[in-house]
Amino acid sequence: MKNTIFTGSATALVTPINNRGVDFDALEKIIDFQISNSTDALVICGTTGEAPTLEDNEHLAAIECAVSVTKGRIPVIAGTGSNNTAHAVMMNKEAEKLGADGVLWVAPYYNKSTQRGLIEHYRTLAASTNLPAILYNVPSRTGSDILPATVAELSKIENIVAIKEATGDVARTVDIISRCGDAIDVYSGNDDVIVPMMSVGAKGVISVLSNVMPLQTHEMCELCLSGDYVKAGQMQVQLFPLIKALFCEVNPIPVKTAMNLMGFEAGELRLPLFEMEDANLELLSKEMKKLNLI
Asked: Which of these, 4, 118, 142, 268, could form a disulfide with 109 (CB 3.0-4.6 Å)?
């Protein structure tokens, strides 16, 4: 059995950006808000953090900021994945130097890979760091699917300890767990199926929702971990309209907009991401008002 990085809810943090670059003052406030509202871990510079459009110096400075502000209170997991294996190796080494507690490796995008190529890519990344690593499977964005048989092979590597499974397919989770047992932890990568995935053995979620509702997302996971799936399911249903609104446009456009509406100064989006359409903004605001977020 491998060491678990976290159980419960990890927030896939937005990256506050202004016309000067990353707004570290705003990032510190967001991190403090997360910790004070019981978030179990933080993921910095993932997809929600606009990693593809961060310069390397910004990316690494954001990791450093998260480690510094968190002060070991909860794990900090750094997004270091890439479709360039050599670049991901470099980012792994830098994140380890900066004091990250773990790393998150998105499946190679655009150039994609065969399953054999994925195995060699991840073997190379694992050999470059002592940090525990979470695979990140999100075929809808990358065009690359880490199949359950491949996950099983990768679970044999000591520091590959988990997978963020973002297909939204509960049966996929069952398949992975049936193949891997306790050799790898599974986290939901989709807020709309947190409870269904945890009911079959997922350890928690890496969440977009928890940017705006960290305490409630944590509590929903805690209910699952304690076996109270009735109450957890009720929360899942209650929060579903907001979750849907947070994905009415490509992530992180809605959630970053939501953070700004809540007064967190999450700042602007970087092209090619752009501000929300008026109709979608109205929908998002409506659902946030229902839950007294604004």
From this structure: 142
Query: For the chain, first and last CA: distance in Å?
Result: 44
Can you give the residue range of the structural domain that contains 150? 8-225
CA 178 vs CA 94, 133, 234: distances in Å: 35, 20, 27
pLDDT at residue 148, as a whole number:
98
> What parts of the chain have a pLDDT lower than 70?
none
CATH of the domain at 15: 3.20.20.70
In which element (H, E) is residue 236 found? Answer: helix 229-246
- The residues assigned a catalytic role are 136, 164
Whether residue 251 lies inside any domain: the answer is no
Please tell me whether the peptide bond between 252 and the residue prior to it is cis, using omega within 30 degrees of 0: yes
Q: What is the pLDDT of residue 37?
A: 98
pLDDT, position 48: 97
Three-class SS of 21-81: EECHHHHHHHHHHHHHCCCCEEEECCCCCCHHHCCHHHHHHHHHHHHHHHCCCCCEEEECC
Distance CA 56, CA 93 (A): 13
How far, in Å, CA of 253 to CA of 173, rounded?
27
In a domain, 267, yes or no: no
Overall number of domains in the chain = 1
